[in-house]
Amino acid sequence: MVKMKRKNINNIKIISTGHYTPPGTLSNFDLEKIVDTSDEWIYSRTGIKSRHIVYDEKTSDLAYHAARNAIGKANYDMSKIDIILVATCTGDYNSPSVACKVQALLGLDRQDIACFDVNAACSGFIYALCIASQMLNSNRYFSALVIGAETLSLYTDYQDRSTCVLFGDGAGAVILENTEEHKAADFYLSAKGEMDLSIVINDKIWMDGRKIYQFAVKAIEQSINIIMHNNELIESDILAIIPHQANLRIIEKAAQVLNIDINKFYINIEKYGNTSAASIPIAFDEFMSTLYNPNGKKVIFVAFGAGLTWGAAMLTL
Ligand code: ACO
Predict the structure, then answer these.
(1) Residues designated as active site
(2) Is the shortest distance between the CB of 212 and ligand 1 below 6 Å?
(3) Domain 11-178 identical in fold to domain 184-316
(4) 3-state SS assignment for residue 139
C-alpha cells in the first residue's frame, strides 16, 4: 500500500557538484565483437551507444576523482567536511568502506569525519542524500560530501548479452551544507524485499530484464507522484527531473504515464549506460553545468534498483 508521508522538509544548500568516468570506453561496436548483438539492437532497446569501464581503477578511485572535481569547482575548504557518504553496491571491499578510502585519498584522515557507505543499489544516491540531509539538519554536522560510485563492469558477465550491454562505471559527487536559507529538500524512499530475486549483483549480475522493466516504470511513476503531491508541486514548478539512467525506454514510458513532458527529463544514458548509484550524480553534475542562474529552482531525482528499492528526492537549487 502506498503511504503518503507527513511533510518533513529540510533546508539543504547544494554547494558544488562533480563527476568522473574512467578513460576506457566500450562502445556497442566493441560489444558486437564479444557477444551476439548489434549497435542497432542495443541503441533501439536501451538508448545506449557507449559506456566507460575501468581497467585498473577501483570504486574508491572513481569516487575520489568525482569528489576532487566537486571540491575543485567550488575551491571548497575541505576542513569544513564532516560527513563522507558513498552510495555503492560495488565497493572495493566488504570493509573498509569506500567512504573511508576517499577520506584517506583526500588526505583528511586526521579530520573528525563520519565516513560510511550505503547500499540501496541504483537507488543508493537518493538514500544517501536523505541520510546526509537528516544528519545536516540535526545541526550536529555542517557539511557533507555525498558520492555515488560504481564499477559494475567488474561484475558484468560479458558472455551474457542480455545484461552486458547495459552497464558502465563512473562516479558523481555533491557537496551539501546545512543552511539558514530556505532551500527545501524532501525525500521519499521505499523498498520491497523479494524472496525470488529479480536482480542480483553477486559474483556476476543476473536479472530478469522484463520484470525489472515493468517494476521500473511503476516505481518512477509512484515516486514522482508522491514527492510532487507531498510538496504541492505541479509540472511547471520543476526545472528538471534527473532519473536513474537504466534504459531510455523506461524513462520515456514513465514520462508518458505521468503525462510529463519528456524534455523535463535530463537524459545522458547514451554515453554512460547504467552506472547504478553513480548515474544520478553524474547526470546532475552535467545538468548543473548547463545552467546560468538556477537559484531557487526545484529539481527532482528519481531512481529504482535491486532489492527492490526505489525513491525520489526534491532539492532546491
Ligand atoms: N542483442 C541482441 N539480442 C538480444 C540482446 C542483445 N544484447 N539481449 C537480448 N536479446 C534478445 C533476447 O534473446 C530475445 O530474443 P528471443 O525473442 O529470440 O527470445 C529478444 O532479444 C528480446 O529480449 P527481451 O529481454 O524481451 O528484450 P527487451 O525488449 O525486454 O529488452 C532489456 C531487454 C533491455 C534488458 C529490458 O528488459 C530492460 O531494460 N529491462 C530493465 C533492465 C534494468 O533497468 N536493469 C537495471 C535495474 S537495477 C540496476 O540498475 C542495477
Answers:
(1) 122, 244, 274
(2) yes
(3) yes
(4) coil
210 CA distance to ligand 1 centroid (A)? 7
Q: Which helix (H) or strand (E) holds 25?
A: strand 25-27
Answer whether 37 contacts ligand 1 (Cβ < 6 A): yes
Ligand 1 atom closest to Cα of residue 163:
35
Please state the pTM of the whole predicted model. 0.95
Residue pair 276/269 in contact (Cβ under 8 Å)? The answer is no
Residue partners of 131: CB distance under 8 A and separation at least 6? 85, 118
Q: Which three cell numbers stand for residue 262?
A: 519528456
Ligand 1 centroid–CA 158 distance in Å is: 14
Q: Is 199 in the pocket of ligand 1 (CB under 6 A)?
A: yes
Q: Where are the beta strands (DSSP E) in 56-213?
A: 83-87, 114-118, 143-151, 169-178, 184-191, 199-201, 205-207
Greatest alpha-carbon pair distance for the chain in Å reads 56
Distance CA 135, CA 124 (A): 16
Cβ pair 239, 299 in contact under 8 A: yes
Q: Which numeric CATH code is attached to 11-178? A: 3.40.47.10
Is residue 120 in contact with ligand 1, taking CB distance under 6 Å? no
Of 135, 17, 20, nearest to 76 by C-alpha is 17
Read off the C-alpha cell for 90.
Answer: 560495488
User: Which CATH number does the domain 184-316 belong to among 3.50.30.80, 3.40.50.2000, 3.40.47.10, 3.40.50.300?
Assistant: 3.40.47.10
Q: Where are the domains of the chain?
A: 11-178, 184-316
**What's the pLDDT at 181?**
87
Low-confidence ranges of the chain (pLDDT < 50): none
Neighbours of 107 (CB within 10 A): 9
